[in-house]
Amino acid sequence: MRIRRKPWARPELEACDFFINNPVEFVGSWHDKFLKKQPIVLELGCGKGTFISKISKENPNINFIAIDIKSEMLALAKRNVEKAFLNSKVDNVLLTAHDISRISLIFNENDFVDRIYINFCNPWPRKKHNKRRLTHPRQLSQYKTFLKNNGEIHFKTDNDELFYDSIDYFLENGFDIVYKTEDLHNSNYHENILTEHEKMFSDEGINIKFLIAKNVK
After folding, report:
1. H-type alpha helices, 66-216
2. Angstrom distance (rounded) from CA 145 to CA 116
3. Residue 104 Cα distances to 27, 64, 111, 113, 117, angstroms
4. d(Cα 146, Cα 198) in Å, to the nearest integer?
5. 62, 133 in Cβ contact below 8 A?
6. Contact 28, 111 (CB under 8 A)
7. Distance (Å, whole) CA 90 – CA 153
8. Residue in 137, 210, 132, 195 with CA at minimum distance from that of residue 168
9. Staple 207 to which of 10, 108, 129, 183, CB 3.0 to 4.6 Å?
10. Do 48 and 127 contact (CB within 8 A), yes or no?
11. Has this prediction a pTM greater than 0.90?
């Protein structure tokens, strides 16, 4: 998604208590960055933060880290988190900017993450660009270093080709597909949190594809 440059975004993030300015400094020690020792869950490509703001507020017993490469997106995510928490202290959310294709620079086996959410990532439809997908095998191999045994990846997309290719990616990389639907909104899965993209695609009549892949080491 293209977003206009916002000169205020970076200064606002740097003044935010729950923004991590230099995530490479905390590789292997993310659990120590939170006030309470709780399971850690990641959202990769959090965009404007609609998802992370809702799920973090509803689950105070879980620590969340949301990552995006764009400061402009993260600044909007920061505002959405603050809006969700109102006057409450935000103590179970961290936002950070990083290139997810190089995520092993900021997480390692000592960070043991329970779950990863990937919501409506870029499908990179051209064959030569497939390796940039967040579900591509070279990405999955990185996630497996810090995703717990039996930890899950929850993946949503509107794109058919990306969905079916991703099923193959997961299976080829030692994941079990424990749940799968080609029409999430008419499925028996009732824990869904609607995102901005999801609403947009659904309003256009596009079925939302969803799966849960379990890391079996």
Report:
1. 71-85, 137-146, 160-172, 196-203
2. 13
3. 8, 18, 11, 13, 17
4. 28
5. no
6. yes
7. 24
8. 137
9. 183
10. no
11. yes
Q: In this structure, what token pair is assigned to residue 95? A: 């936002």
Q: Give the other-Cβ count within 10 Å of 174's Cβ.
A: 14
Element (H, E) at 13: helix 9-14
Q: At what angle do helices 137-146 and 160-172 cross, to 10 degrees?
A: 50
**Average confidence (pLDDT) over 47-64:** 97
**Are the CB atoms for 33 and 111 separated by under 8 Å?**
no
Q: Which residue has the tokens 């299976």?
A: 171
What is the arrangement of strands in the sheet containing 175-181, beginning at the earlier edge strand? 19-20, 93-97, 63-68, 40-44, 113-119, 147-157, 209-215, 175-181
What residues have CB less than 8 Å from 34, skipping those under 6 apart?
40, 63, 91, 92, 94
pLDDT per residue as tens digits for the range 68-121: 999 999 999 999 999 999 989 999 999 999 999 999 999 999 999 999 999 999
Residue position matching structure tokens 């905390």: 26
C-alpha closest to that of 55 among 213, 153, 191: 191
Q: How far is CA 162 from the centre of its chain?
A: 16
